[in-house]
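Thread: "does anyone have the structure for this chain?"

Original post by V.I.:
We have the sequence but no experimental structure in hand. Need at least a predicted one for the grant figures.
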Amino acid sequence: MIQNVLQQKLRPLIEAERTLRRRKAVAWILWSGAVALAILLALAVHFQWWSWMVLIVVFGIVSIATLIGVWWADSRTVGVKALAERIENAHPDLRAALITAVEQEAGKDGKLGYLQERVVYEAVNHALEHDWIRRVSRKRLIGAAWFQALAGIAFGALLWMVLG
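Reply from O.Q.:
Generated one for you, tokens below.
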């Protein structure tokens, strides 16, 4: 039962990690599309070369790559141990309790032993007292959101310049 509480406490962090992966994937794809549009714009301005077909292909590739990137980010499993290590680094007062709690496995009867339960309980209690889930992931999510927004703005601006 206490193991389920730990999983429940880690679930928002796992979802935040997936969101972070998704934002980074979409941002990198949009930046790549922006570079392709910049090249197309340079060709049009400096060499008077233009092709609607190339523009449609670039837009199609970016669209399909975005769908694949989102699928890839959502389909990969999140390494709970790596997340636990990141939390441990941010909160040294846990003294490896979270990593130990994550590694606990139930016995043959499906229950944890007394010491295993104590370790998991200590990690859950620390999560409740310090709210480390929100603090660990918030800065990274905001940074990724800005990165994705800037990529979208750059892609949109270059698309507007190419079409305008």
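V.I.: this helps a lot. Helices lie at 2-47, 52-75, 80-90, 97-103, 114-130, 132-163.
O.Q.: and The CA atoms of residues 1 and 110 lie 10 Å apart.
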